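Standup notes, structure subgroup. Blocker cleared on the iron/sulfur cluster input:
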Amino acid sequence: MGRAKAFSLLSGGLDSLLATRLIMDQGIEVIGLHFITPFFGYSKKGQESSFTERWRDLYGVQTRIIDVGEEYLQVVRHPRYGYGKNFNPCIDCKIFLFSKAKALMGEEKADFLVTGEVLGQRPMSQRRDTLRIVERDSGTEGVLLRPLCAKNLKPARPELMGLVDREKLLDFRGRSRKPQMKLAEEMGLRHYPSPSGGCLLTDPVLGNRIRRHFSQSPNITVNDLLLLQVGRHFQFSNGQHLVVGRREEENQKLIELWHEGDVFLKVKAIPGPLGLIRGKADPPALLLAASIVAHYSKAKEREVVEVQYGTAPGELNELLHVPPVQDDQIAPLRF
Ligand code: SF4
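Run returned:
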């Protein structure tokens, strides 16, 4: 029999790195699959090779980035097992990602699948019953191995088949991070990734903004979701969104996210943010958006401000004259 091969689901955090390394240390070839969506890992989009190099150089781990953004939107919209504390559909998320990894196993002739889950670490998705549900619904029964807590679970098939030595697996349990820190030290891992994981769906403010957007828009896109993560957001009575950059890099991000039909606004000749209207930019929406953009500019104290607008970033050829919106008018428009 040749050398065994496994896929590992790399969240980008410490636990899945440790699980990966534990299995590599048994002489098994492991490829880390790092799934990205607009809610987690998306900053690596377009930066795949630097991520791959970084993980190879720092941790000795082979990785592959897989963008599942479009399909993942359905998971967030209709999670069978509901949401966690915020807008995080953790159980369905895992079912989806595990089944994606399972589908790749056949192509690559991987023998089993590794995750960094720890029994009892998270209230919703790492209870004994939910670990079982995830396995069952993702079709990964018999191929899934959780090396960090394997000794607290019944032997998994890769152990029974002799692909993995159970004695070298661990019995982590609960929320404490100390055993992970200690193991990282023993493995000589420095600069390891932060434990938080960074999923925006668990963020109370952003999660709520994303939830509202899902409830209002039947055809939400990846681009819409990326836009929700930039700048200040306002919503007008006909459903239009105005986004106002808070810093130069956010203005730049708005330009990158531009798509057909969007309208840009900017105060003329005075420093101020870029605004972007998504949705029907009718005259009332344009006037209101212009007065909000003026409010956040250096011309805020003027009675009337000139605001340029246009349908492409470099073509703000139209002009409006508006008073900056007052502080007390802003709050009800916040999204
Ligand atoms: S925190 Fe986010 S990425 Fe992690 S399982 Fe939950 S929904 Fe998925």
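Discussed briefly. Residues 90-108 form the longest helix (19 residues).
Next: hand off to the docking folks.
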